[in-house]
Amino acid sequence: MAGYFKSIRDGFKLRNFTNYILIAAALILFLILELTGVLRRSHANLLAQVGFSIILAVSLNLVVGFLGELSLGHAGFMCAGAYIGCFVANQLHKTSLPPLVTLIVAMAVGGIVAALFGFVVGLPALRLKGDYLAIVTLAFGEIVRNICKNLPWFGGAMGLPTEQYGTHLFIVAFAVVLLMLILTQNLIHSKHGRAITAIRDNEIAARAMGINVVFYKLFVFVFTAFFAGVAGVIYGYYTTPVIYSSFTFNYSIEILVMVVLGGMGNITGSILSASLITVVNFVLQSNLSGDQAAIKYLVYALILMVTILFNNAPAFRPIKEKIGLQAILSRVRKKFGLKHPSENPEEIVDDSAKWHRIPTKIKMDSILSTDLKPADDGTLEPDPRQEDKHE
Amino acid sequence: MTATTFIDGLSLGAIYALIALGYTMVYGIAKMLNFAHGDIIMVGAYTVYSTLLWMGKPILAVIFAIAVCVILGVVIEKVAYKPLRGASPLAVLITAIGVSYLLQAIAQLAFGAKAVPVGLPRFPVLHIGDKLVVNVSTLITLGVGSVLMIALTLFIKKSKIGRAMIAVSEDRKAAQLMGVNVNRIISLTFAIGSALAAVASIFYLMQIPNTSPTLGSMPGIKAFTAAVIGGIGSIPGAMIGGVLLGVVEKICLSIPALNPYTTAIEFAILIVILMVRPTGILGKKIREKV
In this structure, what CATH number is given to the domain that contains residue B130? Predict the structure, then answer.
């Protein structure tokens, strides 16, 4: 753990500026709109929703895209964070603390509790893989939901009523997004991030290279659960009451749709697709009523299937090479004579002079002289044992 | 715990086991999790509902439900899973989730989100002795379920096709070299699994005579849990897991203090068993190879 913070301190940079600029520009734009009174209340609420969706999508992407384990219980972490964070917030609202302080404390508490749950889920993750882990995370999400439903402090089936923060909630949400992006992107580009992707690509090889698989798996689960919990608290402030039925398995899938659509292992993609899906959801929900609401799920289903089939099926490979996003980008780059960042030769620095050479202490003589034994008078004679063999 | 609770549990367990068999066979042979399997139950239930509405003959409803589910299962495999053969398990799993959503959305658009009552004939309640009160439908479920499971085990062990299935699940490439048509075996597996799901949907409707677009998701997840508890890929494992989960569920529901936490207890059993045996009760140990 200390190593993580040390490496963060040593190499702390604002990497991957696109994402920061994206979020900061959106924040400033909407802040101006809010201050001038142009922004409508429903749209400010939508922005808060976009904010916590981004947090959820980016944190799930860390598990699915970077660690390579499927988690179907992200809504469970969110549920734990939302219930406990908002419970604490309700107690603090009785005191005279300013609302912003209460919100921050609630987010911290919700995040930490969710992180504890993440640790508990991470433990079976050490022994289980792939499909088995997916079912355990799913089971865990359902357990959390089932317990929250039945605890008397949390309002039972009626849900936990929460205080509303008002239209400024989206500012807090976007501030958390910025903070999370700084932490996540520095983590990914550090040696720890490379260790995590190494586990995804080949766990046995990663272990053979001395990567502490146990630590990194637990770490990723704790880290993502923390932010899911924080998103849960923001969600609790966004809507009242916090009710167990909103954190179903379907919600976990909704977050997964965002990650898959944006591209597993791509943070910018997660940000864009989380925003897009939330806005599309909002538009669909305000225009569709009753049974037509199923169109939303139809859209989700098509997104999941088409994205995966397009990216993975061998039959689609020729089409993908022609009209895929990467293909188009590389064609544009070729036209303007640009190079892909990874093709830039200046990035590779020859630092071989700084390497420590391991001194070799093996003397060649000792190897060569094994077959020859010096005689008492100092002359070299063939080893008698060797002669025995020849006879 | 009374004997009635136990028999109810066994009958629910038989339903779970029938669904779990579909999961476990597909996993064993196609090496994928068919997340849409639960929704095939829902399609079966809606087929029963529609047939009863139009023709009113329960026997026809049963036949149609099995036929529709078998065709659907095979079509899903051909359209959604076959193009992904050899892709990463994560990709296949996400596509399967997509199929599950698709089926639910279509059902909701066609039949509405509300639960509709299914007019299956009512079964009488038997009083055996003083304490034992059993519904005839429970006994039918238990009986037919057991017969199907024994028949399936015999089919897999004794018939040529069944042995081809075992061969494919053990080593697909070697089986192919020995002249087994792998694609046909995989289609057949989906067909058998879907047929069992259709039977399970009829038994489920005999217990709870309503159907809704999300009917399949909870039994589906529970049966999946049962398959994992028993060791996914193992046919006797799915039966043991299903019966265990069914009995535990009925016992928990009958005790007032545990009643609200039934779901949590069932999933906690899954987690505990996987912590002790990472591949389930009867699952084979997976050796990691470099």
Answer: 1.10.3470
Full pLDDT tens readout for chain B, 290 residues? 578 888 889 989 999 999 999 888 888 888 888 889 999 999 999 999 999 988 888 889 999 999 999 999 999 999 989 888 878 777 888 889 899 989 999 999 999 888 888 877 778 887 777 777 788 888 888 888 889 988 998 999 899 999 999 899 888 889 999 999 999 999 999 999 999 999 999 999 988 888 888 888 888 889 988 998 988 888 888 989 999 999 999 999 988 888 888 889 999 998 888 888 888 888 776 665 55
Residue with tokens 């916090």: A242
Q: CATH number of the domain that A29 lies in?
A: 1.10.3470
Check: CB of residue A32 under 8 Å from CB of residue A190: no
Q: Looking at the 3D structure of chain A, how many domains does it have?
A: 1
Model confidence, pTM: 0.80
Sort out which chain A residues have CB atoms less than 8 A from B221's CB and list them.
Answer: 138, 142, 249
Instruction: Give the amino acid at B134.
Output: V
Residue B42: which domain range? 3-276
**How many domains would you assign to chain B?**
1
**Residues of chain A found within 8 Å of residue B106, distances taken between Cβ atoms:** 294, 298
User: Of all helices (H) and strands (E), which one includes residue A267?
Assistant: helix A267-287
By C-alpha distance, the chain B residue nearest A135 is B225
Domain assignment present for residue B288? The answer is: no
Note if the bond before A241 is cis, omega within 30 degrees: yes
In B37-88, where does DSSP find H-type helix?
37-54, 58-76
The answer to whether position A109 is within a domain reads: yes
- What's the ipTM? 0.83
Name residue, tokens 């390497």. A355
Give the span between the Cα atoms of A97 and A254, in whole angstroms: 35
In whole angstroms, what is the distance from residue A149 CA to residue B261 CA? 9
How many angstroms separate the CA atoms of A92 and B52, rounded? 58
Tokens 């640009």 found at? A338
Q: Report chain A residues whose CB lies below 8 A from the CB of B91.
A: 308, 311-312
Full domain range(s) for residue A45: 2-248
Tokens 């958390």: give the residue: A176
Q: Is residue B213 part of a domain?
A: yes
- Asked if the structure places residue B289 within a domain, the reply is no
Residue A347 lies in a domain: no
Q: Is residue A171 part of a domain?
A: yes
CB contact under 8 A, B288 and A291: no
- Asked if residue B201 is part of any domain, the answer here is yes
Helix, strand, or coil (residue B133): strand
Beta pairing partners, B117: B210
Alpha helical stretches, state H, B159-259: 160-170, 172-177, 182-207, 217-230, 235-254
Residue A27 covered by a domain: yes
